[in-house]
Write a structure and sequence with these properties.
The structure is a homodimer of 176-residue chains. Chain A has one domain: 3-Layer(aba) Sandwich (Rossmann fold). In chain A, the strands form 3 sheets. A 5-stranded parallel β-sheet of chain A has the order 4-3-7-8-9, with helices on both faces. A two-stranded antiparallel ribbon of chain A has the order 1-2. Chain A has 5 helices and 9 strands. In chain A, α3 crosses α4. By secondary structure, chain A is α/β, with parallel strands linked by helices. The interface between A and B is large, with 41 and 41 residues.
């Protein structure tokens, strides 16, 4: 299945900046059965995880995370760019491949003891995911797993993933 | 069901600007069974629509649209803020409640003859949805329906919805 889905990922040279090969997942999303197959494969991977919440990162992460939360009947918590969430929020700074940024989470989004899957579209350098881990753990919740549709293994982001727990289960459906 | 789901929508006064009452859907999303019930109700409404594509608008629209596309086995097409889509895109300007803006769609996202449901989180003044209609119709596709989780009826956005087709079926799950 992996090769079949990979045929629906498009290479975009020099986006968002010179020298970067961007993996465009929109042709996969535009293929209804392929989109469903990808989400079902992620849901199957997590079927015995015990997680009760899916946390996802704006904006492409919402596409994968919301479909997965719906599929698994889990809670969905959006992490957003600064100033976008309407209620009192906590913030985590992050280093991205393309510069500095931050993400925020509603202060009441998670309860202590919540078991969380952090879901995003891509694992690149790991900066965004580390900020998400920080927000989840600061709320007293635990990270049951980190799941992405695509992993850019050549950026070695997996080795950069870190937080209080020390060790994280990382699952990527499509590896590059 | 409508009243039960409405209890999970939070009023945020003066967001994003003074005098505006923002309807915060995150408590509903954070309730797994409620989120599932909301998406299932929208899927049931469109079960005989004949649409083959769900088009949704960044970023909250992705949460509703992606879950619905997954649920119905349809294609998912994201409309994004300018500069965010990696491939060649077409743009539509829009007037929002809070100022001017624009959204873009990949030039190959839709085929002539595609039957589209435009799905967003909210119908406010209708500006964003009109821009989405324009992008869909410019691609030669038809708008089978417009569906939102919440409708702010007091802004009369429904009366502002317009495009080539002239008449649109608008469905909102929760009305204010």
């Amino acid at each position: 299945m992996e090769e079949e889905l990979k045929r629906l990922i498009r290479n975009i040279p020099d986006f968002p900046k010179q020298g970067v090969q961007f993996k465009d997942i929109t042709p996969l999303l535009q293929n209804g059965p392929a989109f469903k197959r990808a989400i079902d494969a992620m849901a199957a991977h997590y079927s015995s995880s015990g997680a009760n919440v899916i946390v996802s990162i704006e904006a492409r992460g919402f596409i994968i995370g919301a479909a997965l939360a719906y599929s698994m009947g889990k809670s969905f918590v959006p992490l957003r760019k600064p100033g976008k969430l309407p209620f009192t929020s906590v913030r985590a700074e992050l280093e991205k491949e393309y510069g500095k940024d931050a993400i925020e989470m509603h202060i009441d989004a998670l309860k202590a003891g919540d078991k969380v899957l952090i879901i995003d579209d891509v694992l690149a350098t790991g900066g965004t995911l580390n900020a998400a881990i920080k927000l989840v753990e600061t709320a007293g919740a635990s990270v049951e797993g980190i799941g992405v549709l695509t992993e850019l293994s050549f950026l070695h982001g997996r080795a950069n993933i870190k937080g209080k727990q020390g060790d994280y289960k990382i699952f990527s459906l499509l590896k590059y």
